[in-house]
Amino acid sequence: MGNHSDGSPQHGSAVATAGQTEQAFADPGLPPHRLRLADTDPKAAKRAERQVTALFIISVIGTIVFLVAYFAIDLGHDSDIATIRLQNLLLGLGTAFAMLGIGTGIVHWAKALMPDHEVSEARHGIRSDEDREAAVKIVDDIIEETGIKRRPLIRNTLIGAMLVAPLPALAVFGDLGPRPDDKLRHTMWAPDANGKKVRLARDPDGTPIKAADVTIGSAFHVIPEGLNELHEGKLNEKAKAVVLLMRLNPADLNISPGRESWSYNGIVAYSKICTHVGCPVALYEQQTHHLLCPCHQSTFDLTNECAVIFGPASRPLPQLPIEVDAEGYLVASSDFQEPVGPSYWEREYS
Question: Transmembrane segments in this chain: where (predicted)?
């Protein structure tokens, strides 16, 4: 066979062969522990404690700035852009200092004052009462090592920062207002106390629309006539009452029983508010007769009473019943027959 002692696979040291003994390596263990300045110098430890306390106080101040900006700066209908920018600036700075203060303080506390010894131990399951008592002792040891009992200034400022930190979130969520209940069921499209019906008007100029103005394939963004004259609550009323008006070939419409009088010669009107999360449905595909919500791509089939054919929306767009008055103008014969806007779990459907 020949001599292969010159580095061949059978005799060379580059490849391990079966039967060879693997070389064992000694466990190097943990590296030597390096003491920090706060471990050896009481003044440095006290200085680090003051720094952590200051960071927690900064967090509290940031939360207070947020709350003051949120409640003290009144944004009315006549607020100028400078006031809005000031509030946004203070809200952002308040949130940043509130979160960064408490987060940086905890990190600095852990790095400068808490024990940093590395520990290696075998993992084992907790099965006996002795093991459970040992686990409780470990938790107690951790609490003791943090020094939270020996450092009341850090403990108290941390508790204070953690108590006030959620307040901005609570303020924002609370300002979302009460549940809609039946508020989304009533809009400006309802006839007045004398039975006068509301005309459909162009958005945004408020010009009434005649049926003759609506040609096949056209689409109008519509608001109730008189909306622009409101002095208070205009935006809230518009958010509920905006409508898309379109005209199709009447033969293309699949009308459910009971809705025969809700349209006029192929002219139909539907709520513009998507039933997913309330985004404005603003895109009309003339060839396919589809309405598209640009936020999450919910798609509604106009020929089938705006039934959902794609996307996350769970129900069709509410239809506004319309007719023509004696002067040829389009009017709403009644309010929507169901609440407009997004769906939610406590909502009742008609």
Answer: 52-73, 89-110, 158-177
